[in-house]
Design brief:
mainly alpha; 73% helix; disordered C terminus; Alpha-catulin; cadherin binding; CTNNAL1
């Protein structure tokens, strides 16, 4: 992790350590300009020629710092007035910042430097210690103000969560459709607010592990919001149905756990016991083992032999997750066991030559030890490759096997026919699939290569583990009430969540492979999706010539789009049909180009085909109805903000779907 801007040193060795941990990018970015200006003042040459230009520059920087601090402190003091619990701490930090800013202004008032020094007043030239002290005080106090202000954001998130929890309790107790609609409308608004607050916080976090955990929790809330709606409606329509009640209770429980997890992340605390640590993966174990072995080159006496041997045995024990799996073939199991045996042999040889070198009082690594180190590292690397290949192959085959969703379709059909026996049979099949997927996620966690990806694997494992039984209970409810539209809708929502998680797992597998092969792509964070029931599309591989052609076309499209927009700004009649059509078609063309690169608003081939159809309707109606913005607005049911069009992710939890279901909800559903 990059060092905080609050911890920087000058050429003289001074260290401006504010003593506060900066956890968000916004605080860090706010401090960077201040650190830069202060560093400029501190790091001047001791024998700098005091020309008029130099003196004016130093004074200008000092004044800029002082003015900026003054404005900054005014904001901090305003925050203190509005938040009584921070008043004392914030007031002290603001006082220290203002005092440091004034000190810097005085020390940089050097236009009459010689006169000032003769009068006994120190300047940046004569009182370097005073300057360093003022700079340290300023950075510390300003950072304290920013960190205190960040508590307000945390407070807002906690307050929003608390409102959601209260409304959640009310939703759980409702007994009529009318009461449910009223409370759910309030719940939807509160969830939208919570989504935006937590989304902003997720993007602002510096710690990638926390960011991954936040993304996982928000993904749960996104899916569970729709599940809660349909599960609650089903329970209200069929109040005596036990499977409907079980289905609903599981959703409420999962939402509460996700809400608690968000608060644990933003407050650095756990509401239930000690901090949860990630299980040690094979990837991490091998990396640590190789580090210890290769560390012998630096010192033959730094690590005891017993420690290396014990670590290897722990590593071999972890491979049992692969060798004991019912889904591991005999050939794969034998291959892993053979590599474990080989690694043991090489390690024993290393320990033997190592002990011999120690007994001979060798001052540096002998050729025998060096060779043993290389062989040990090679064998453990081959073990890593073997288990990685096993996990990736199993995941790929499993995703391909379940891509048609036949079991889900069979469950829907059996439920609609009221066939409880068939539901039970297909439920057992789905349970077997769930066990396979859960185990595969566990194996992927072993080889993921980074902690954020491990967190995403754990999230996928938990999601399959929970949603499987929920699909079965929803199918049982439909089988008991085969003519219930609400029960059918409820089963559809849970099946879509299962399909969506399979799509997320495919993306996760690709990124794990990228890490293994040294291609670090973007981090796989679970994110809200509006088309959760769409299958993933395999990306086509292009040769160098095709890539160059597409790149050139993309550049031309981008330039043409820019030219069209610039030209239209000169038109007096902005609503002219021709103007709107030109602007729309240029935007559509560029959106389609972005699709070929896996970017932009069009995410699937279905989106692309729909956009092409809308584009053809541009031509027929000569209007802007087919513009990417209007198309996306129609898809989402809400206007698209500029940030979304610029590629910034939405923080919502699928608000469009909520609004649609709210609109379709009626009290006349008695059939």
């Amino acid at each position: 992790m990059a060092s905080s801007p609050c911890s920087s040193s000058n050429s003289g060795g001074s260290n401006f350590d504010c003593g506060l941990e900066i956890k968000t990018r916004s605080v860090e970015q706010t401090l960077i300009p201040l650190v830069s200006q202060i560093t400029t003042l501190i790091n001047h040459k001791d024998k700098l020629k005091k020309t008029e230009k130099t003196l004016r520059a130093i004074q200008k920087v000092g004044q800029a710092v002082s003015v900026a601090v003054g404005r900054f402190v005014a904001v901090g003091e305003a925050i203190a007035l509005e938040n009584e619990e921070l008043k004392e701490e914030m007031g002290h930090a603001c006082f220290e910042a203002r005092r440091a800013g004034m000190a810097i202004a005085q020390l940089t008032d050097v236009c009459g430097a010689e006169q000032s020094e003769s009068d006994g007043r120190g300047t940046v030239f004569s009182d370097r210690t005073g300057m360093v002290k003022a700079a340290r005080m300023l950075l510390s106090s300003v950072t304290k103000v920013l960190v205190l202000a960040d508590r307000i954001v945390i407070k807002q998130i906690i307050s929003s969560r608390n409102k959601v929890l209260v409304t959640l309790e009310q939703l759980e107790q409702v007994s009529t459709f009318q009461e449910f609609v009223q409370i759910f409308s309030q719940f939807g608004n509160e969830m939208v607010e919570f989504a935006h607050l937590t989304g902003d916080r997720q993007n602002d976090l510096k710690d990638e592990n926390k960011k991954a955990r936040m993304a996982a929790a928000r993904a749960v809330l996104e899916k569970c919001t729709m599940m809660l709606l349909t599960a609650s409606k089903t329970c209200l329509r069929h109040p005596d149905c036990e499977s409907a009640r079980i289905n609903k209770d599981a959703v409420f429980q999962r939402m509460r756990l996700a809400l608690d997890q968000v608060i644990e992340i933003v407050t650095d605390a756990r509401t239930s016991g000690e901090a949860k640590t990630l299980p040690i993966s094979i990837y991490a174990g091998i990396k640590d083992f190789k580090g210890k072995v290769e560390g012998l080159r630096d010192s033959l006496y730094c690590v005891p032999c017993e420690a290396v041997a014990a670590q290897l045995e722990a590593l071999v024990e972890q491979t049992e997750d692969f060798t004991d799996s019912a889904y591991t073939s005999h050939e794969q199991r034998e291959g892993i066991l053979q590599l474990c045996h080989m690694t043991r042999q090489e390690t024993q040889q290393l320990l033997s030559t190592w002990s011999e070198a120690q007994s001979l009082k060798a001052k540096e690594v002998t050729e025998e030890v060096e060779l043993a180190i290389l062989k040990t590292c090679q064998s453990v690397s081959e073990l890593r490759r073997e288990v990685s290949h096993k996990a990736a192959t199993q995941a790929s085959e499993l995703l391909k096997l379940h891509s048609d969703h036949l079991v889900l379709q069979a469950l829907k059909a059996a439920g609609s026919e009221g066939n409880l026996e068939a539901v039970a049979e297909y439920g057992r099949t789905l349970t077997e699939q769930r066990e396979q997927l859960v185990e595969t996620c566990r194996l992927l966690c072993h080889i993921s290569g980074t902690e954020p990806l491990e967190i995403t694997c754990i999230h996928a494992e938990e999601t399959f583990h929970v949603i499987g039984p929920q699909i079965i209970s929803a199918a049982q409810t439909l089988a008991l009430h085969p003519n219930s539209k609400i029960a059918k809708e409820n089963l559809d929502v849970f099946c879509e969540a299962w399909e969506s998680q399979l799509c997320d797992m495919a993306v996760l597998l690709k990124e794990i492979n990228d890490v293994f092969e040294g291609r670090r792509g973007r981090l796989s964070l679970p994110s809200p999706k509006h088309s959760t029931n769409l299958k993933t599309v395999k990306a086509a591989k292009l040769d160098a010539e095709e890539q160059t052609t597409i790149a050139k076309l993309g550049l031309e499209l981008r330039l043409l789009t820019s030219d069209v927009d610039s030209e239209l700004e000169r038109w007096e009649e902005q609503d002219h049909d021709v103007a709107r059509q030109c602007q729309s078609m240029s935007s559509v063309a560029y959106s389609m180009y972005l699709f070929t690169r896996g970017e932009g608003l069009l995410k699937t081939t279905l989106d692309l085909f729909h956009q092409a159809e809308v584009c053809q309707l541009c031509k027929s109606q000569r209007s802007s109805q087919g513009s990417p913005q209007h198309w996306r607005e129609r898809q989402l049911g809400t206007p698209v903000k500029e940030d979304a069009l610029n590629g910034k992710g939405s923080n919502g939890f699928g608000v469009k779907s909520l609004e649609q279901h709210m609109a379709n909800m009626t009290f006349l559903e008695t059939k």
